[in-house]
Specification:
Largest sheet: none
Number of domains: 1
Strand content: under 5%
CATH class: Mainly Alpha
CATH topology: Tetracycline Repressor, domain 2
Shape: elongated
Number of helices: 9
Structural class: mainly alpha
Oligomer: single chain
Length: about 190
């Protein structure tokens, strides 16, 4: 999914495959999903699946890649100096990305099957934010960059851990307003 594809049939096929993968991943571990059952659920032939992917793991990596690209592009829309101040808006857009396509990305966050892919996604997001920091602060020392990477890693891992632990609907108001205020003004301060 990292390649730009314009053919609507290809997009429909990918969406059907990813929705089937999402449904199956919410029911069982990724290692227990077979190409045959995925194809049956997606209503495609195995040859069509193999036209796009080598195996289930390749399909899952592409699935993760699409979400990662979407999230990193959302973050990249903002200047580095605005990332914290406008974090409610950014988290809101990211939540919309998770919930897009009938929530097909939810099992990606909630299922342990995708743990290594989720870690790759977190690393890509962290790299995107740290890259923005380095671009906005070209004279930053290695120590400043390391400190920034640690802080961003703490926030992103906490964010993803929260997504895994709570119902998305419960988090909406918290991520839009309360969390950004806590990040800006301190967690113990009532704003």
């Amino acid at each position: 999914m990292n390649k730009k594809k314009t053919d609507r049939r290809v997009k429909r096929t990918e969406t059907a495959i990813f929705k089937a993968l999402s449904t199956l991943a919410s029911q069982k571990p990724l290692t227990a999903i077979t190409v045959t059952e995925l194809c049956q659920m997606a209503d495609i032939h195995k040859s069509t699946f193999y036209l796009h992917y080598h195996d289930i793991h390749h399909c899952a990596r592409e699935f993760q890649g699409g979400l990662t690209d979407s999230i990193c592009s959302i973050i990249s829309e903002y200047e580095y100096c605005d990332l914290l101040e406008r974090s409610g808006e950014i988290w809101g857009k990211i939540m919309e990305a998770y919930l897009s396509n009938d929530g097909m990305y939810l099992p990606f966050i909630k299922s342990g099957s995708f743990a290594s892919l989720l870690q790759d996604m977190e690393t890509s997001i962290i790299d995107t934010i740290v890259g923005q920091f380095q671009n906005s602060s070209p004279n930053a020392t290695d120590e400043e960059i390391l400190l920034h990477r640690v802080n961003v890693t703490f926030l992103i891992n906490g964010y993803v851990g929260t997504l895994r632990s709570f119902d998305f609907n419960m988090l909406k108001d918290i991520f839009y307003t309360k969390l950004p205020n806590s990040l800006l003004y301190g967690f113990s301060k009532q704003v």
